[in-house]
């Protein structure tokens, strides 16, 4: 379980100069600007409020300022019925930049239709943004974006306040209470959306907001979810990777001809059925599996994964992710990306058991970093010398007692209004789509909540919205989810 969570942490450790971290930012500040965007052919006017809001300790002392960007449609008369979407990215240690300027926000960074960087750097209108039906706030936890601990506090002592599964949830829930109060949004239907580690965050927040802040949600969206503290160790953890391997091999045309000629949607159910019905039972036998069965299973795995049967057997059926990323296109001289296996990299040498670098993350930072720095300063008029942390220092991170999947289940059980949608990219190798399905299946063992749980798949990777077709589909799925989870007028929250 911990191994999978570690793989899902959407983060690169960046060592920042000490001087950059000493640059200070007022913990309570706002800048508001007026804009318009055309969404689905409709002109949508809105206000963008960019700034910081304090985090206080139990004695009322300011200990940090969280940077946020809040988009509010300005031609809405009934704010009480207007949904509010609260957006977090992951890491832990990642800024909210990714979904902000590539998915749901009103501006979209310059990339090509498959998500690759293009020059000149910059941004344009996002015609798919959900701002037509919901207001959105993008929140940056401590040390991400422009968020920082306050001057004069003992930063080492405060690490345990901010940097851990449960600490993170606790202080962010308190912060959201203040935000909703300041912005007058208590009457609004509320939604949390998190990506990668952000799914751990919002799953924990769903219950914490109910139990500690008395704030009830209508929906939680999990984009490329982590394991949410749901156990899948041993043979299950190893076996669940195979459908992702098959999707990646299909994309790179490494499957046998009879499979390759099929559509991905026809290949994957076959692989999923083999994984659940044959591979997990076979791997559960460990070293006592009969040799003939082991060879037969290895041959089928190789057929679906696009690698040799010999490689599968050498790993005793447990093919590591790093090895797969290195092995699949080894003969062509390429590696495949971790977070999005459509991306290819070039290593120093073909030999080895893991890629030299994450090809996809390098490409994304190439495109996103200039765009967000330009956008915040030039269009939203938020000017500061503080460095925008794409990935900030948040370690050591305390991952103990991660029960966020159970927290989400309990929040759903307590709140009949609460619905959950999962969005996954088939080519995501860090938080893969089949593990996301498994989490959904295991979230509620009773099966009583399954009518409020649904999963959506996309033909891209971790940030599935980078591909234009999936940007359109993903946002439309969000619209449908929000509309479907709004109760009819007068409909009570009851079983």
From TrEMBL:
GO molecular function, one term: serine-type carboxypeptidase activity
Signal peptide per UniProt: 1-20
Pfam families given in the database record: Peptidase_S10
Gene3D superfamilies reported in the protein's UniProt record: alpha/beta hydrolase
One BP annotation, GO: proteolysis
Keyword Hydrolase attached: yes
Keywords: Carboxypeptidase, Glycoprotein, Hydrolase, Protease, Signal
Matches recorded under InterPro entries: AB_hydrolase_fold, Peptidase_S10
UniProt KW Metal-binding keyword: no
Name of this protein: Carboxypeptidase
Species of the source: Pontibacter mangrovi
């Amino acid at each position: 379980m911990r191994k999978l969570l570690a793989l899902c942490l959407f983060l690169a450790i960046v060592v920042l100069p000490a001087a950059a971290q000493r640059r200070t930012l007022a913990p309570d500040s706002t800048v508001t600007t007026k804009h318009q965007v055309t969404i689905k052919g409709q002109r949508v006017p809105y206000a963008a409020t960019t700034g910081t809001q304090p985090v206080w300790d139990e004695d009322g002392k300011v200990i940090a300022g969280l940077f946020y960007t809040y988009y509010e449609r300005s031609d809405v008369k009934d704010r009480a019925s207007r949904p509010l979407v609260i957006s977090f990215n992951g890491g832990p240690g990642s800024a909210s930049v990714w979904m902000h300027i590539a998915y749901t926000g009103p501006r979209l960074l310059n990339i090509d239709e498959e998500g690759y960087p293009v020059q000149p750097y910059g941004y344009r209108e996002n015609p798919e943004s959900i701002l037509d039906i919901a207001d959105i706030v993008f929140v940056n936890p401590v040390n991400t974006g422009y968020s920082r601990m306050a001057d004069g506090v003992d930063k080492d002592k405060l690490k345990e306040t901010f940097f851990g599964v449960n600490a993170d949830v606790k202080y962010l829930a308190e912060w959201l209470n203040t935000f909703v109060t300041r912005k007058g949004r208590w009457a609004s239907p509320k939604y949390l959306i998190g990506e990668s580690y952000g799914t751990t965050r919002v799953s924990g927040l769903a219950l914490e907001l109910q139990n500690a802040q008395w704030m009830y949600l209508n929906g939680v969206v999990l984009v490329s979810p982590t394991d949410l503290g749901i156990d899948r160790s041993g043979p299950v953890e190893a076996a669940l990777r195979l459908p992702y391997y098959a999707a990646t091999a299909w994309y790179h045309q490494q499957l046998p001809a009879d499979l390759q000629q099929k559509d991905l949607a026809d290949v994957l159910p076959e692989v999923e059925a083999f994984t659940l019905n044959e591979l997990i039972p076979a791997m559960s036998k460990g070293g006592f599996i009969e040799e003939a069965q082991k060879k037969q299973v290895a041959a089928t795995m190789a057929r679906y994964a696009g690698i040799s049967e010999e490689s599968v057997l050498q790993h005793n059926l447990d093919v590591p992710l790093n090895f797969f990323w290195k092995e699949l296109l080894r003969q062509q001289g390429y590696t495949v990306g971790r977070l999005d296996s459509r991306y290819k990299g070039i290593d120093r040498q073909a030999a080895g058991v893991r890629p030299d670098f994450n090809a996809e993350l390098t490409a994304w930072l190439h495109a996103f970093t200039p765009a967000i720095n330009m956008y915040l300063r030039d269009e939203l008029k938020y000017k500061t010398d503080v460095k925008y942390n794409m990935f900030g220092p948040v370690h050591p991170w305390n991952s103990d007692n991660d029960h966020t999947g159970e927290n989400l289940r309990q929040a759903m059980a307590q709140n009949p209004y609460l619905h959950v949608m999962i969005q996954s990219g088939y080519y995501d190798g860090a938080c893969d789509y089949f593990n996301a399905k498994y989490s959904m299946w295991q979230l509620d063992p009773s099966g009583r909540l399954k009518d409020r749980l649904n999963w959506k798949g996309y033909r891209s990777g971790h940030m599935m919205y980078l591909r234009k077709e999936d940007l359109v589909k993903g946002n439309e799925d969000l619209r449908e989810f929000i509309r479907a989870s709004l109760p009819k007028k007068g409909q009570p929250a009851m079983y």
